[in-house]
Design goal:
about 100 residues, mainly alpha, Serine Threonine Protein Phosphatase 5, Tetratricopeptide repeat, 6 helices, about 0% strand
Length: about 100
């Protein structure tokens, strides 16, 4: 089922390659399918091209922590909190901060 959704999203991305929502959705589908490295690459590429896509910071940081890359995870949480703060997205900021504090403290 997840593979089918992955393929569907890839097809949609062929038509609209700049759609960050679809890129984020693809990364989430890779996570669901247990394809952590593919998810990681999708999130990283998305944030390199659009560092203001705040929702991806949370998922990428959690994934990196799970993969044993805690220092990178902390940096992504910190970057995400900064972006959320700049955007005035208090909900995202609070979610990022909560997960960050749980990891750090």
């Amino acid at each position: 089922m997840a593979t089918n959704r992955i393929e569907q999203i890839k097809q949609m991305l062929e038509k609209t390659p700049g759609d960050d929502f679809l890129k984020h959705a693809l990364a989430l589908e890779y996570l669901k399918a247990g394809e952590d490295n593919a998810a990681k690459e999708c999130f990283i590429r998305l944030l390199e091209n659009n560092p203001h896509y705040v929702g991806s910071y949370y998922h990428l940081a959690l994934l990196l922590d799970r993969l044993g890359e805690r220092d990178k995870a902390i940096r992504y949480f910190e970057q995400g909190m900064q972006v959320a703060k700049e955007k005035g997205d208090n909900h995202a900021f609070n979610e990022l901060r909560s997960a960050y504090e749980e990891m750090v403290f």
